[in-house]
Design goal:
The structure holds 2 protein chains of 2 kinds. By secondary structure, chain A is α+β, with helices and mostly antiparallel strands. Chain A is built from 3 helices and 12 strands; from the N terminus they run ααβββββββββαβββ. Classes of the chains: A alpha+beta, B mainly alpha. Chains A and B meet through helix 2, helix 3 and strand 10 of A and helix 4, helix 5 and helix 6 of B.
Chain lengths: ~200, ~180
Protein backbone atom coordinates (compact mmCIF):
# COMPACT_ATOMS: atom_id res chain seq x y z
CA UNK A 1 0.00 0.00 0.00
CA UNK A 2 3.00 2.27 0.39
CA UNK A 3 3.89 4.01 -2.76
CA UNK A 4 6.91 5.81 -1.43
CA UNK A 5 8.81 5.52 -4.64
CA UNK A 6 6.55 8.10 -6.14
CA UNK A 7 8.01 10.65 -3.80
CA UNK A 8 11.64 9.64 -3.84
CA UNK A 9 12.61 8.36 -7.27
CA UNK A 10 12.98 11.43 -9.36
CA UNK A 11 13.63 9.53 -12.56
CA UNK A 12 10.35 7.77 -12.42
CA UNK A 13 8.71 11.06 -11.47
CA UNK A 14 9.69 12.75 -14.67
CA UNK A 15 8.45 9.88 -16.78
CA UNK A 16 5.18 9.95 -14.92
CA UNK A 17 4.74 13.67 -15.42
CA UNK A 18 5.32 13.23 -19.11
CA UNK A 19 2.62 10.56 -19.13
CA UNK A 20 0.29 12.95 -17.36
CA UNK A 21 0.91 15.66 -19.88
CA UNK A 22 0.23 13.21 -22.70
CA UNK A 23 -3.00 12.10 -21.07
CA UNK A 24 -4.17 15.66 -20.51
CA UNK A 25 -3.32 16.64 -24.05
CA UNK A 26 -5.15 13.60 -25.41
CA UNK A 27 -8.28 14.37 -23.39
CA UNK A 28 -8.32 18.00 -24.47
CA UNK A 29 -7.65 17.04 -28.06
CA UNK A 30 -10.46 14.52 -28.23
CA UNK A 31 -12.91 16.85 -26.54
CA UNK A 32 -11.79 19.72 -28.73
CA UNK A 33 -12.30 17.70 -31.89
CA UNK A 34 -15.77 16.61 -30.88
CA UNK A 35 -16.63 20.19 -30.03
CA UNK A 36 -15.24 21.38 -33.33
CA UNK A 37 -17.37 18.89 -35.23
CA UNK A 38 -20.41 20.02 -33.30
CA UNK A 39 -19.52 23.65 -33.93
CA UNK A 40 -19.14 23.17 -37.64
CA UNK A 41 -22.35 21.21 -38.02
CA UNK A 42 -24.50 23.24 -35.74
CA UNK A 43 -27.59 24.93 -36.93
CA UNK A 44 -30.34 26.86 -35.33
CA UNK A 45 -32.86 24.18 -34.84
CA UNK A 46 -36.42 24.46 -35.89
CA UNK A 47 -38.22 22.31 -33.37
CA UNK A 48 -38.20 21.47 -29.75
CA UNK A 49 -38.79 17.89 -28.81
CA UNK A 50 -40.00 17.11 -25.35
CA UNK A 51 -39.77 13.59 -24.11
CA UNK A 52 -40.91 12.59 -20.69
CA UNK A 53 -39.70 9.35 -19.22
CA UNK A 54 -41.40 7.97 -16.21
CA UNK A 55 -38.77 8.04 -13.47
CA UNK A 56 -40.29 5.01 -11.81
CA UNK A 57 -39.01 2.91 -14.63
CA UNK A 58 -42.04 2.09 -16.68
CA UNK A 59 -41.65 2.29 -20.41
CA UNK A 60 -44.19 4.93 -21.06
CA UNK A 61 -42.62 7.91 -22.78
CA UNK A 62 -44.54 10.76 -24.22
CA UNK A 63 -42.75 12.61 -26.98
CA UNK A 64 -43.97 15.73 -28.67
CA UNK A 65 -42.53 18.36 -30.92
CA UNK A 66 -43.20 22.02 -31.05
CA UNK A 67 -41.98 24.57 -33.48
CA UNK A 68 -39.54 27.11 -32.17
CA UNK A 69 -41.23 29.79 -34.19
CA UNK A 70 -44.23 29.81 -31.94
CA UNK A 71 -44.58 31.87 -28.84
CA UNK A 72 -46.18 29.79 -26.19
CA UNK A 73 -45.89 28.23 -22.80
CA UNK A 74 -45.62 24.50 -22.81
CA UNK A 75 -46.87 23.01 -19.60
CA UNK A 76 -45.87 19.47 -18.76
CA UNK A 77 -48.22 18.30 -16.10
CA UNK A 78 -48.49 15.00 -14.35
CA UNK A 79 -51.46 14.60 -12.12
CA UNK A 80 -52.49 12.16 -9.46
CA UNK A 81 -53.48 9.35 -11.74
CA UNK A 82 -50.07 9.32 -13.32
CA UNK A 83 -51.05 10.69 -16.71
CA UNK A 84 -48.63 13.09 -18.22
CA UNK A 85 -50.19 15.82 -20.30
CA UNK A 86 -48.46 18.42 -22.36
CA UNK A 87 -50.42 21.55 -23.09
CA UNK A 88 -49.50 24.50 -25.22
CA UNK A 89 -50.75 27.86 -24.01
CA UNK A 90 -50.14 30.72 -26.42
CA UNK A 91 -48.12 33.61 -25.25
CA UNK A 92 -49.75 36.91 -25.92
CA UNK A 93 -46.68 39.06 -25.68
CA UNK A 94 -44.10 37.07 -27.52
CA UNK A 95 -40.57 38.04 -28.34
CA UNK A 96 -38.77 37.42 -25.10
CA UNK A 97 -38.54 34.69 -22.53
CA UNK A 98 -40.47 35.60 -19.45
CA UNK A 99 -38.82 34.42 -16.30
CA UNK A 100 -41.49 35.55 -13.91
CA UNK A 101 -44.02 32.85 -14.62
CA UNK A 102 -45.38 30.87 -11.75
CA UNK A 103 -48.24 28.54 -11.13
CA UNK A 104 -51.16 29.26 -8.85
CA UNK A 105 -53.95 27.18 -7.57
CA UNK A 106 -57.35 28.74 -7.53
CA UNK A 107 -60.43 26.71 -6.70
CA UNK A 108 -59.19 23.30 -7.71
CA UNK A 109 -57.56 24.42 -10.92
CA UNK A 110 -54.10 25.46 -11.81
CA UNK A 111 -53.47 28.74 -13.46
CA UNK A 112 -50.49 30.19 -15.18
CA UNK A 113 -49.62 33.37 -13.43
CA UNK A 114 -47.56 36.00 -15.10
CA UNK A 115 -45.96 38.28 -12.54
CA UNK A 116 -45.40 41.03 -15.07
CA UNK A 117 -48.89 41.03 -16.45
CA UNK A 118 -50.44 40.23 -13.09
CA UNK A 119 -53.20 38.14 -14.42
CA UNK A 120 -54.25 34.62 -13.64
CA UNK A 121 -56.76 33.89 -16.32
CA UNK A 122 -54.75 31.37 -18.27
CA UNK A 123 -55.82 28.01 -17.00
CA UNK A 124 -53.33 25.21 -17.19
CA UNK A 125 -55.45 22.34 -16.13
CA UNK A 126 -57.93 20.80 -13.86
CA UNK A 127 -56.39 19.34 -10.76
CA UNK A 128 -59.39 17.11 -10.33
CA UNK A 129 -58.96 14.79 -7.46
CA UNK A 130 -55.63 16.19 -6.50
CA UNK A 131 -55.17 15.84 -2.81
CA UNK A 132 -51.60 16.90 -2.45
CA UNK A 133 -49.87 13.70 -3.42
CA UNK A 134 -46.22 13.66 -4.26
CA UNK A 135 -46.76 12.28 -7.72
CA UNK A 136 -47.82 15.51 -9.27
CA UNK A 137 -45.31 17.63 -11.03
CA UNK A 138 -45.31 20.65 -13.27
CA UNK A 139 -42.68 21.97 -15.60
CA UNK A 140 -43.25 25.01 -17.74
CA UNK A 141 -41.19 25.62 -20.83
CA UNK A 142 -41.42 29.00 -22.50
CA UNK A 143 -40.79 29.18 -26.21
CA UNK A 144 -40.30 32.67 -27.52
CA UNK A 145 -38.01 34.51 -29.89
CA UNK A 146 -36.72 31.21 -31.30
CA UNK A 147 -35.39 30.12 -27.95
CA UNK A 148 -36.68 27.80 -25.27
CA UNK A 149 -36.16 28.01 -21.56
CA UNK A 150 -37.59 26.24 -18.56
CA UNK A 151 -39.20 28.96 -16.51
CA UNK A 152 -40.90 27.01 -13.75
CA UNK A 153 -40.54 23.63 -12.16
CA UNK A 154 -41.36 22.21 -8.79
CA UNK A 155 -38.49 19.78 -8.61
CA UNK A 156 -36.29 20.05 -5.52
CA UNK A 157 -33.05 21.04 -7.19
CA UNK A 158 -34.27 23.45 -9.92
CA UNK A 159 -31.35 22.66 -12.19
CA UNK A 160 -33.66 22.76 -15.19
CA UNK A 161 -34.81 26.28 -14.34
CA UNK A 162 -31.28 27.53 -13.83
CA UNK A 163 -30.16 26.06 -17.15
CA UNK A 164 -29.48 28.31 -20.07
CA UNK A 165 -31.79 29.00 -22.96
CA UNK A 166 -31.44 26.54 -25.78
CA UNK A 167 -31.75 27.32 -29.45
CA UNK A 168 -29.24 25.22 -31.42
CA UNK A 169 -29.69 21.69 -32.60
CA UNK A 170 -28.56 19.18 -30.03
CA UNK A 171 -28.77 21.39 -26.97
CA UNK A 172 -31.01 20.18 -24.22
CA UNK A 173 -32.55 21.00 -20.89
CA UNK A 174 -33.04 18.12 -18.52
CA UNK A 175 -35.17 17.84 -15.42
CA UNK A 176 -33.81 14.68 -13.86
CA UNK A 177 -36.23 14.26 -10.90
CA UNK A 178 -39.16 14.46 -13.29
CA UNK A 179 -37.54 12.61 -16.14
CA UNK A 180 -38.07 15.32 -18.73
CA UNK A 181 -35.69 15.97 -21.59
CA UNK A 182 -36.22 18.96 -23.86
CA UNK A 183 -34.07 18.89 -26.99
CA UNK A 184 -33.75 21.10 -30.03
CA UNK A 185 -34.09 19.11 -33.22
CA UNK A 186 -34.18 19.79 -36.91
CA UNK A 187 -37.27 17.89 -37.79
CA UNK A 188 -40.70 17.36 -36.46
CA UNK A 189 -41.21 14.09 -34.62
CA UNK A 190 -44.85 13.31 -34.51
CA UNK A 191 -46.19 12.13 -31.21
CA UNK A 192 -49.54 12.15 -29.59
CA UNK A 193 -51.98 14.94 -30.24
CA UNK A 194 -51.17 18.29 -28.85
CA UNK A 195 -53.65 19.44 -26.31
CA UNK A 196 -53.75 23.04 -27.37
CA UNK A 197 -55.64 25.55 -25.31
CA UNK A 198 -56.64 28.51 -27.37
CA UNK A 199 -58.08 31.80 -26.48
CA UNK B 1 9.76 10.20 26.01
CA UNK B 2 9.37 9.87 22.33
CA UNK B 3 7.09 7.12 21.23
CA UNK B 4 8.48 5.20 18.33
CA UNK B 5 6.50 2.98 16.10
CA UNK B 6 7.57 -0.29 17.60
CA UNK B 7 5.55 0.44 20.72
CA UNK B 8 2.37 1.03 18.87
CA UNK B 9 -0.27 -1.61 18.88
CA UNK B 10 -2.62 -2.61 16.15
CA UNK B 11 -5.40 -0.70 17.83
CA UNK B 12 -3.39 2.50 17.84
CA UNK B 13 -2.78 2.22 14.16
CA UNK B 14 -6.40 1.48 13.41
CA UNK B 15 -7.55 4.46 15.44
CA UNK B 16 -5.07 6.72 13.76
CA UNK B 17 -6.25 5.62 10.38
CA UNK B 18 -9.88 6.10 11.32
CA UNK B 19 -9.20 9.60 12.58
CA UNK B 20 -7.37 10.45 9.41
CA UNK B 21 -10.20 9.12 7.30
CA UNK B 22 -12.68 11.18 9.29
CA UNK B 23 -10.58 14.24 8.65
CA UNK B 24 -10.52 13.58 4.93
CA UNK B 25 -14.26 12.95 4.90
CA UNK B 26 -14.94 16.27 6.60
CA UNK B 27 -12.66 18.03 4.17
CA UNK B 28 -14.39 16.45 1.18
CA UNK B 29 -17.79 17.53 2.51
CA UNK B 30 -16.61 21.10 2.81
CA UNK B 31 -15.28 20.93 -0.73
CA UNK B 32 -18.64 19.58 -1.88
CA UNK B 33 -20.31 22.55 -0.26
CA UNK B 34 -17.93 24.96 -1.95
CA UNK B 35 -18.53 23.41 -5.34
CA UNK B 36 -22.28 23.61 -4.82
CA UNK B 37 -21.88 27.36 -4.50
CA UNK B 38 -20.14 27.73 -7.83
CA UNK B 39 -22.72 27.89 -10.61
CA UNK B 40 -21.75 25.37 -13.21
CA UNK B 41 -24.96 24.73 -15.05
CA UNK B 42 -25.12 23.39 -18.53
CA UNK B 43 -28.65 22.17 -18.64
CA UNK B 44 -27.47 18.72 -17.75
CA UNK B 45 -27.74 17.66 -14.14
CA UNK B 46 -24.86 16.09 -12.35
CA UNK B 47 -22.16 18.24 -13.84
CA UNK B 48 -19.98 19.20 -10.96
CA UNK B 49 -16.48 20.46 -10.59
CA UNK B 50 -15.53 17.40 -8.58
CA UNK B 51 -13.44 19.21 -6.01
CA UNK B 52 -13.96 16.49 -3.41
CA UNK B 53 -11.85 14.09 -5.47
CA UNK B 54 -8.81 15.72 -3.94
CA UNK B 55 -9.39 13.92 -0.64
CA UNK B 56 -9.93 10.61 -2.36
CA UNK B 57 -6.64 10.92 -4.21
CA UNK B 58 -4.79 11.82 -1.04
CA UNK B 59 -6.35 8.88 0.79
CA UNK B 60 -5.49 6.57 -2.05
CA UNK B 61 -1.84 7.51 -1.84
CA UNK B 62 -1.49 7.60 1.92
CA UNK B 63 -3.77 4.85 3.16
CA UNK B 64 -4.75 2.56 0.36
CA UNK B 65 -7.72 1.80 -1.78
CA UNK B 66 -10.01 0.40 0.90
CA UNK B 67 -9.93 3.57 2.94
CA UNK B 68 -10.32 5.75 -0.12
CA UNK B 69 -13.34 3.75 -1.30
CA UNK B 70 -14.98 3.96 2.11
CA UNK B 71 -14.60 7.70 2.33
CA UNK B 72 -15.75 8.06 -1.27
CA UNK B 73 -19.02 6.23 -0.68
CA UNK B 74 -19.63 7.99 2.60
CA UNK B 75 -18.92 11.33 1.05
CA UNK B 76 -21.43 10.75 -1.74
CA UNK B 77 -24.16 9.70 0.67
CA UNK B 78 -23.58 12.46 3.18
CA UNK B 79 -23.14 15.20 0.63
CA UNK B 80 -26.29 13.98 -1.08
CA UNK B 81 -28.26 14.28 2.14
CA UNK B 82 -26.85 17.66 2.94
CA UNK B 83 -26.82 19.42 -0.40
CA UNK B 84 -29.01 17.38 -2.67
CA UNK B 85 -31.71 14.80 -2.88
CA UNK B 86 -32.03 11.07 -3.22
CA UNK B 87 -31.84 10.88 -7.01
CA UNK B 88 -28.66 12.90 -6.96
CA UNK B 89 -27.11 10.34 -4.62
CA UNK B 90 -27.68 7.55 -7.12
CA UNK B 91 -26.11 9.43 -9.99
CA UNK B 92 -23.19 10.58 -7.92
CA UNK B 93 -22.68 7.01 -6.70
CA UNK B 94 -22.48 5.75 -10.25
CA UNK B 95 -20.03 8.47 -11.22
CA UNK B 96 -17.96 7.91 -8.09
CA UNK B 97 -17.86 4.15 -8.63
CA UNK B 98 -16.57 4.45 -12.18
CA UNK B 99 -14.16 7.18 -11.20
CA UNK B 100 -12.75 5.17 -8.31
CA UNK B 101 -12.29 2.11 -10.49
CA UNK B 102 -10.37 4.09 -13.08
CA UNK B 103 -8.36 5.94 -10.46
CA UNK B 104 -7.31 2.70 -8.83
CA UNK B 105 -6.42 1.27 -12.20
CA UNK B 106 -4.31 4.30 -13.05
CA UNK B 107 -2.70 4.21 -9.61
CA UNK B 108 -1.77 0.56 -9.72
CA UNK B 109 -0.39 0.78 -13.23
CA UNK B 110 2.28 3.02 -11.73
CA UNK B 111 2.70 4.99 -14.88
CA UNK B 112 1.00 8.19 -13.75
CA UNK B 113 1.73 10.67 -11.03
CA UNK B 114 -1.04 11.98 -8.74
CA UNK B 115 -1.83 14.56 -11.40
CA UNK B 116 -2.68 11.87 -13.91
CA UNK B 117 -4.61 9.76 -11.42
CA UNK B 118 -6.74 12.72 -10.40
CA UNK B 119 -7.27 13.60 -14.04
CA UNK B 120 -8.64 10.18 -14.91
CA UNK B 121 -10.81 10.34 -11.81
CA UNK B 122 -12.34 13.64 -12.84
CA UNK B 123 -13.02 12.68 -16.44
CA UNK B 124 -14.49 9.28 -15.64
CA UNK B 125 -16.67 10.74 -12.90
CA UNK B 126 -18.38 13.01 -15.39
CA UNK B 127 -18.64 10.31 -18.02
CA UNK B 128 -20.12 7.87 -15.52
CA UNK B 129 -22.82 10.36 -14.55
CA UNK B 130 -23.57 11.01 -18.21
CA UNK B 131 -23.97 7.30 -18.91
CA UNK B 132 -26.36 6.82 -16.00
CA UNK B 133 -28.37 9.87 -17.05
CA UNK B 134 -28.66 8.50 -20.58
CA UNK B 135 -30.02 5.22 -19.28
CA UNK B 136 -32.47 6.78 -16.87
CA UNK B 137 -33.85 9.34 -19.28
CA UNK B 138 -33.98 6.92 -22.17
CA UNK B 139 -32.52 9.38 -24.63
CA UNK B 140 -29.06 9.68 -26.07
CA UNK B 141 -29.42 13.33 -26.95
CA UNK B 142 -27.61 14.63 -23.91
CA UNK B 143 -24.39 13.06 -25.19
CA UNK B 144 -24.15 16.35 -27.05
CA UNK B 145 -22.56 17.74 -23.90
CA UNK B 146 -19.70 15.29 -23.78
CA UNK B 147 -16.92 17.72 -24.86
CA UNK B 148 -17.80 20.07 -22.05
CA UNK B 149 -17.75 17.23 -19.55
CA UNK B 150 -14.43 15.88 -20.72
CA UNK B 151 -12.72 19.26 -20.74
CA UNK B 152 -14.06 20.36 -17.37
CA UNK B 153 -13.29 16.97 -15.81
CA UNK B 154 -9.79 16.94 -17.24
CA UNK B 155 -8.91 20.49 -16.24
CA UNK B 156 -10.26 20.28 -12.70
CA UNK B 157 -8.75 16.83 -12.28
CA UNK B 158 -5.36 18.05 -13.39
CA UNK B 159 -5.52 21.07 -11.09
CA UNK B 160 -6.56 18.94 -8.14
CA UNK B 161 -3.79 16.49 -8.93
CA UNK B 162 -1.32 19.33 -8.94
CA UNK B 163 -2.54 20.39 -5.50
CA UNK B 164 -2.37 16.81 -4.29
CA UNK B 165 1.20 16.66 -5.54
CA UNK B 166 2.04 19.62 -3.36
CA UNK B 167 0.26 18.19 -0.33
CA UNK B 168 1.47 14.59 -0.50
CA UNK B 169 5.11 15.10 0.53
CA UNK B 170 3.91 17.02 3.55
CA UNK B 171 1.43 14.41 4.70
CA UNK B 172 3.74 11.51 4.04
CA UNK B 173 4.52 11.50 7.72
CA UNK B 174 0.94 10.42 8.31
CA UNK B 175 1.86 7.10 6.80
CA UNK B 176 3.98 6.27 9.76
CA UNK B 177 1.06 7.00 12.04
CA UNK B 178 -1.52 5.01 10.19
CA UNK B 179 0.40 1.95 9.06
Amino acid sequence: MFDSDILTHSDNKRRRYINDAILLAACLLIAGMIWLIQYLTRSTGGFVEISTADPAGSDETVTQSFSLNESCYIVIFKNDTGNIRIRCIPDRIGGIINDSTTVEELSDSLFLFDAIESNTDRMIGDIGSYTGSDERFINILHISGHKADMVYADCPDLICVKARQISRTGESIVCLPHGIVVTVTDSYTSGTDVDAVTW
Amino acid sequence: MKKDNSDRTYTDIRTGRMAYMGLCLALSLILSYVESLIPFNFGIPGVKLGLANLCIVILLYTCGWREALTVDILRVILAGFMFGNLSMILYSLAGAALSFLCMYGAYSMKKLSPVGVSLTGGVTHNIGQLIVAVFVLGTARIVYYIPVLIISGAVTGALLGFIANLILPTVSKIREDVH
